[in-house]
Structure formats: structure tokens, C-alpha cells
Amino acid sequence: MKQAFGYFVHHQGRGHAERCAAIAHALPADRPLVIFCARDDIFPTLPPQASITVIPSLFEPRGDEATAMDHIPTPATLHCAPLGWPGIRRAMATIAGWFDTTNPALMICDVSAEIAQLSRICSVPHVKILQHGDRGDPGHQAAYDGAAGLLAPFHLALAQPEWDAAMRAKTCFAGGLGVDTRVVERELARQRIGVGAGEEMILVTAGGGGSGFGQAPLGVGARSRPGARWITIGPVERDWHATEPANIEHRGWVDNAADHIAAADLVIASTGNTTCQQILAAARPWLAIPEWRYFDEQHRKAQALGAAGVATTRPHLPSSAEAWQQALAETLAGHDAAAQCALIEDRPATKAADWLESLADQLWRVTAPVPVGA
Asked: Does the pTM exceed 0.85?
């Protein structure tokens, strides 16, 4: 068997786990993969050589934390490192102990600047998953600069302008990574979700990492286009003052989000990675509305999508009927299906896995010693 790969998976949302599973299935069968995550119920099926080690959450208190040290500032090189948390101590000890006993070939970090830096401190080469956002702070830069490589689960065309040539050169861009980007025909998708062939359908979807879009602005949108059937999937934040018309329907969490996207005439969605890849693959007109995330991740991704010409963007949901009508008209008029499809690669998981294997081979290549006095 080859040296093992380690993989830290952040458990907010499901995109991190889905990326991990896709890579796991694409890695060689003789490459052990040990996954560290605070939850083991968010993963799709994993191959036999992959296992999950459950560790305490790095940011959710258990109740046994000391609170008298919160006044001590967090250094700029760290993001979430409160003092007196036994759970964090146990998580770090578990990973560091595994480093010592296993001598892994790589540690993949998706995502934590602290785990990335722990890997480097423990003399383990790490690969940092690259995300959008304002991440020029010392913590992120330490994780990026100390990485053996960076892995971006999106196409090079969505790179942020400040990522310089050196940073891009150490990055594997894999558009569509972690997402089943096979798209069913629109007619079949509509049959599956119960929408008529002749109906205009507007889909609203938000990811699992937040509380979703507000009910009130969606009601204004549905009233502004009364001839369309509006369907929401995922979370919707309830507003007591919302006045909803009859043409909007909230379906909540569904198992067939891809069918809903394929069936839609227009999609209004936040910019989480899984959602992005599904919409780009389906090549649907897209009004991209970023949700709040740390480091303005979704706002920076929306900017990248707009710059690439694959989505119409607004910083928030329109707040009047006129603004809704303008945004929807702009979305339909600016739609470029070919540009969207071009950002999804044929076999992104295989590309990522091959790159990881090649990187590990390069890092652990045995070189002949240089004779003394040569």
C-alpha cells in the first residue's frame, strides 16, 4: 500500500464532504485515505480504502470550555483559536498523533487555516482547498504560502484577479469537482418534479450553509411576475410581514435539486460551490445573489461569475417590483449557455486525483545522496 493521504473536512454545508468523496473514488485503490471531520453523516458513499475519524468540532462549544480567557486576542495568523477548549485540543491531538504514527504523504485541508498550519508545523506537506473571498489576511496567506499545492473546485476562469501567477501555478483548477454534473432533459426533469411543459418556472435555491433567502423579497418577486410559477428549495427565512401570492411554493429540502435546476427557465440562487456547478452544468439563466459568509466568500464568487459572463448578479434580492423586473429581464437577455458549460470539466475528480498523486510522487521522490566533497 502507498503512504496514506489525510483529509480534513469542514462540516458546514455538504460541499466539502461531496468534494472529498469524489476525490476518494478517483484515487487509486491502494492509496489509503483517512478523513477527519466532526460529522460522519454528511458523506456520500466512500470507497473501501477511505475511512472517517470523527473529531470534535473546531468551532462549536461542548459545554466544558473555560471562558475566562476570551479577553486574550487571537493573533492575526489564526482565525478560530479560542483558549481553554478541550474539544479543540482533542481534535488537534488526534490529527497530530495520526501524523506521527502514519507518516502521511499529504494532508488535504478543506478548509481550516489552523489545520493547514498544524500540518506544516508537524512536517507534513499539505494541500489547501482554495476558496473565493477576501483572504489576504495573515492566517490564509500562511496556509497558502506553506502549502505544497492548492486545489480549486472551480474553473480557472473564476480565479480572483489578485491571485498572482505564482499562486495560480501551484493550483489545480477542477471545474465541477464534487458535483454530479450530468443534466437530464428539461422535459423529463419537469415530469419528475411535477411542472407542466408550458409553464414558466422560476427556481429559487439557497445552500445548506446559512438560513436562506428572505420570504418577503421573494413574495415581491413572485408578484412582479405573476404569470410564472415560482418554486423555492432549500431554506427560506420567514418574515412576519411577508405577503405571498399564490404563484410561489416552498418545497424545503429536496433530494433532487438537480432536477429542479434542469426544469427551470430561470434560477435565482446563492453562490455556494455545489449550487454553482449544478447551474453552470445545466446552463440555465442565473440571477446570482450571494449570501453572507465569512470573508465575503459568496460576494467574491458572484463577482467572478459576473466577470466571466456566466451569471447576472445583484448584491442582495431586489427590493421592489421594478427592481425585480429589471433583474429578471437582464438575466434572460444576458444568458450565455455556452460560456456556462465551458466552466465544467469532463472528469474533474480524476484531474484532481491525478494531480494529487503526481504531487505526492514529486514530494517523496528519493534522491541519491551527494557524496561528501563533491
From this structure: yes
pLDDT score of 237 more than 60: yes
Question: What is the Cα–Cα distance from 217 to 286, expressed in whole angstroms?
Answer: 17
* Per-residue confidence band for 14, with pLDDT thresholds at 50, 70 and 90: confident
Q: What is the pLDDT of residues 279-322, one digit of tens each?
A: 999 999 999 999 999 999 999 999 999 999 999 999 999 999 99
Classify residue 72 by its DSSP letter: S
213 and 206 Cβ atoms separated by less than 8 Å: yes
Alpha carbon distance 280, 261 (integer Å): 10
DSSP 168-204: HHTEEE-TTTTS------HHHHHHHHT--TT--EEEE
Distance (Å) of CA 11 to CA 45, 54, 233, 329 = 16, 11, 21, 37
Instruction: Name residues whose C-beta falls within 8 Å of residue 131's C-beta, 6 or more positions apart in sequence.
Output: 111, 273, 297
In the beta sheet, which residues pair with residue 144? Answer: none
- Reduce the DSSP state of residue 298 to 3 states and report it: helix
